[in-house]
Each structure stands twice: as C-alpha cells, then as structure tokens.
Amino acid sequence: MGLQQTMRALSDPVRREILNLLKNGRLSAGDIALHFEITGAAISRHLSVLREADLIRDTREGKFIYYELNASVLEEIMLWIATLKGEKYNDEA
Known about the structure:
By secondary structure, the chain is α+β, with helices and mostly antiparallel strands. Helix content is 54%, strand content 15%. It has five helices and three strands. It has helices at 3-10, 13-22, 29-33, 40-52, 71-84, and strands at 27-28, 56-61, 64-69. It has a three-stranded antiparallel sheet with strand order 1-3-2. A hairpin with a 2-residue loop joins strand 2 (56-61) and strand 3 (64-69). Helix 1 (3-10) packs antiparallel against helix 4 (40-52). It is elongated, with a radius of gyration of 14 Å. The two termini are 26 Å apart.
C-alpha cells in the first residue's frame, strides 16, 4: 500500500462516507448500498478501491461479504498528518 493510493481512495466523497459507515462496525455490500443512490456496481468499485488501498478488509460468510475498517492504516495516516503539523503523535491519548 502506498500513500498515493491511500490518498486517491480518500479523495472521493462516496468512499469517505463508506468509511464513515464502517466506523460503527462491519457491514455487507448490500447494507452499504442502501445508504447511497448509486448502482451496486458503483458501490462494488468503491469498495474495491478502498480494499486495494488497504483501508478496509473483507470477510466472506456464506454468500455475503462483510467489510470493516482497517484501523492500522488509518492510524498510519493520522501519524503522518500529525507529523506534518509538527505534532508528536501519541496513540495513548
């Protein structure tokens, strides 16, 4: 995973909203799609971009695929942004 790929994934408002939905726990693609007025194929593509950027993980259970946040990548981004601001990142806060 590269920073450029991560930033590209985060640049889209639909993908940011998907991440926002997943902060409350894992969801299936169908559950995610209910929150948007775009096609299932478009949701699938957004999920693929997020997965390729390692921002989400997927788990297959039967015929369903569930998606959840990959917090470790988000923490790395927060650390990078904090260092840009000249702050020391403290993960114990």
